[in-house]
Every structure is written in structure tokens, then in C-alpha cells.
Amino acid sequence: MRMAKKKQLTLEEAIVKDEPYEVPENWIWSKLGSLLKTMTTKKPSNKNEFFQYIDIDAIDNKNQRVAEPKIIKVKEAPSRASREVLEGDVIFSTVRPYLRNIALITDEYKDCIASTGFYICRSNGVLISKYLYYLLCSEKSINYFTSMMKGDNSPSIRKEEFESLNIPVPPLKEQQRIVDKIESIFEKLDKSKELIEEARDGFEKRKFSIIYKGISGDLTGNKKKMIAHNSVMIPIHWKWIKFNDLGRLERGRSKHRPRNDERLFNGKYPFIQTGDIANSNGYIVEHKQTLSEFGLNQSKLFSKDTLCITIAANIGDVAILTYDCCFPDSVVGFTPNENVDSKYIYYFITLVKRDLEHFAPSTAQKNINLKILGNLEIPLPTLEEQKKIVRILDKLLEEESKIKELTQLEDQIELIKKSILAKAFRGELGTNSEEDESALELLKEILSKDI
Fold first, then answer.
1. What is the pLDDT of residue 231?
2. What region holds the Type I restriction modification DNA specificity domain (predicted)?
3. d(CA 243, CA 372)
């Protein structure tokens, strides 16, 4: 069933006169809405007990594809389950467009029903489906839609705003050449990305194994062992001690509300958050924010060499301060007593990070409290042996970290993809042919019909 039919545009209304940038002569600029068919409605059939439903959660927004539609009983169908999708449609979530919940509907998902949270883009014949798909994935399109968002809780764009996007339209043959070129380049980039991911995964496994050997005493020549908690074996002269008894654990502070009050920031006191710790590679050597005197008065300045541990969002990430710094209550600072080496504790927390996450309740944002962290039992050798273990681990992991540097190329690959798409929609991939009939002629033909 069709929704209310869109107003048929004239050729003059469909053509964009003020071109955003120059494109080849046989290309045209047009409003997206003038190149799409009217969306159609489809309700789950009572003939079936279940149906496949595509909502935002079903989209892999890192790779812009349908990942896993939900299987829902027809009698429990949500009211939003009413968008018909056909093979070749491009679906685009109008809620928070910057999240890139976009997908091309393939044969596998042509019988699904989509949420009304998607705009269903179905070409009227002027655009090839894959050309439209890559166009909507481009930075230009995402930035435009993001700039048009309205609303506080679930910022979104309206149908009319979505259809107002100005897009470059090449001849059909050129669209296909562009798609072929994009996919050829992306295939090579994706293969490179797979190799990088394999290297990263291998690094993480080796890193875990190396740290485990260090924390269990294997790297320092210990032979005599005893069975300890949960069948974990450690040298007989080591002890299991609660974290609370190894030094001072103290949550960061951020008492003032709202947290984004401008008076809190832009002073001389460094301020870090959980993301800074997660991306630190072990040591805090830089910061993005600072607190003012007003901000400092509601926080606390922790001293250099404090071990920082995240207890909310990304639980169990650790880093050591290389200078005095403030942080919020989603981070715990640990100051060791005279018999404890901070870097040894750093390695132990790295090892048990996943275990810490299991203590977090299933809430919207996972977190653990100071009591859980303080009761964590840690296998402790003498200070001399702690330092020896740290030296060995530092050396081994320094060599391994050379492999991890490859993962930095992953960000470069995504930038290259964005650059390729930008060039594609400017006609700069070297695929354009002046012999192709102008896209204007095809648009005239399509608009002359009653679509």
C-alpha cells in the first residue's frame, strides 16, 4: 500500500540551479526527493506467526548493512513496523543521522518490514541503487542531515528535510562505473583492514598471555607453587591481598551540576575522563580539557604517578598520571603504600578487566562501585619481585607494541574511504565519459511519466 503520494515535481523544480560545486557537463544537480518513489506501507500478515523486523538495532552502523533483523510474533508487532522494503532500496535512519544507520536491502532481506524510523529510498529510475547508497554514506550527506536535526531527546530530521538534499546525478552508465571503481578500491582497503584486525587480535591474545605469565610468577623463575583462589596458581611465598589494603583508593570528584557548566572549564588544571584513560596506552601524557578555579573547588587534583582506573562506561581501563590531574567520579585514583609498585597493579588490572565488567549491573551505563574494586584480591610478591616483573613485562610488551602500531592504519583507511567517496561525487575518479547522454535527458523522461 502506498503512503500519500508525493507531489510530482516539474523539471524546473527538480533541477538545482545554484550548483554546490562544479561537476562534469553531462551531470546535473537535483533534489533527492525528486529522484525517489513514494514510500509504501506494509503490515505483518496474519497468515504468518512471525515476521522479520528491521529496526535501528538491526543495522551494523560501522559497515552500513543489515546485520540481524529481529524475529517477532505478528501479534506482538510494534506500531512502527510498517515500512515496506524491496531489494535495491536504501534505508536511512532519520534519528541521529550522524550514527550512520544506513543499509542497502539485498535479496536476503527483501521480505522484511522496516521501522518508520527509516526513510526508504527507492529510485524512480534516475539513480542506480548502489550509487544512491554510497552517496548517502558520504560525509557530505551525513553532515547535511546532521545540520538539519531537531529535538533534544531523539534529534531527527523530517521527511521534507531529507528529500531536500542536493545531489550530483551523473548519467546511468557513469553511475555504474563510479560504483565499480568505489567497490574495487574498497575491496582492497577492506582486505588491508582485515590484516590489521588480525594483527591487532593476535597482539591482544599475546599481550594477555604475557601478562598472565608475569602475574603468576612464571617470568621470574618461580617453580614452587600452591593452589589459590579459583584454582589460580601462584608462587608459595606470594600472598593474596585485598586491593583496599595495598594503598588508598579514592574516587575522582565532580560535584557540581550541571556537569557542562561553562564556569567549570578553561582554567589551568588538567582534567581527564574515562575516554582519555582508555586511549592512553598506559600513561596520561596529554589532556583535552582543563578546569578553572571554580571547577577545581568542586573536584580534586590528584598527584603525578596516581594509577587511574575507570569504573563506569569502559570499566577497568587503567593509566598512570605523568603530571597532576583532576578527574570525575567515574574514575578511581590509587596511591600505593611503600610495598606496592603501581605499574604491577596496572598490569594486574589489565589482566582482570573482563572479570571486573562482570560485576557491573545490567543498566544503560555499566558501572562498578568502590567497594567492589576494594574487595578485589591481588596476588602480591615482594616489592623487589614486583619491580622485576614490571621490567620484564615492559620489555616484552614494548616489542609487541610495534605490531599494535599497525592498528593506527585503520583510521587512515576510513579517511581514505571518505576521500574516495568525495572524489566520486565530484567526477574525479577518472571514469566520466563525455559520450554518455546527459543525465538531464533521463530526468526529463522520468518526470514525464506518472511515477
1. 63
2. 24-197, 236-408
3. 10
User: What pTM, to 2 d.p., does this model score?
Assistant: 0.66
CA 48 distance to own-chain centroid? 36
Domain(s) labelled CATH 3.90.220.20 in the chain stretch across 11-171+436-447, 200-405
The arrangement of secondary structure in 11-171+436-447, i.e. its CATH architecture, is Alpha-Beta Complex (3.90)
Render pLDDT for 338-369 as a digit per residue (tens, 0 to 9).
999 999 999 999 999 988 877 766 544 567 88
Judged on CB neighbours under 10 Å (0-12, 13-18, 19+), 206 is: middle
Domain 200-405 CATH class label: alpha beta
Which of 415, 427, 411, 431 is closest to 139 using CA atoms? 415
pLDDT single digits (tens) 178-218: 999 999 999 999 998 888 888 777 877 888 899 999 998 88
pLDDT above 70: residue 85: yes
Residues 6+ apart with CB under 8 A from 225: 217, 233, 234, 235, 236
Query: What is the C-alpha radius of gyration for the chain, rounded to an integer number of angstroms?
Result: 28
Dump pLDDT digits (tens) for 301-350.
999 999 999 998 789 999 999 999 999 999 999 999 999 999 999 999 99
CA distance from start to end of the chain: 15
And the C-alpha cell for 273?
A: 575522563
